[in-house]
Amino acid sequence: MLIIGIDPGSRRIGYGLIEKTACKINLITAGILRIKAKNDPSALVETKNHFLALIKKYRPTVLAIEKLYFAKNQKTAMAVAESRGVIIFLAKESGLIVREFSPSVVKAGITGYGSADKKAVAKMVKIILNQPELQVIDDVSDALAAAILASQKVFSS
Amino acid sequence: MLIIGIDPGSRRIGYGLIEKTACKINLITAGILRIKAKNDPSALVETKNHFLALIKKYRPTVLAIEKLYFAKNQKTAMAVAESRGVIIFLAKESGLIVREFSPSVVKAGITGYGSADKKAVAKMVKIILNQPELQVIDDVSDALAAAILASQKVFSS
Question: Which domain holds residue A79?
Answer without folding.
Answer: 2-153
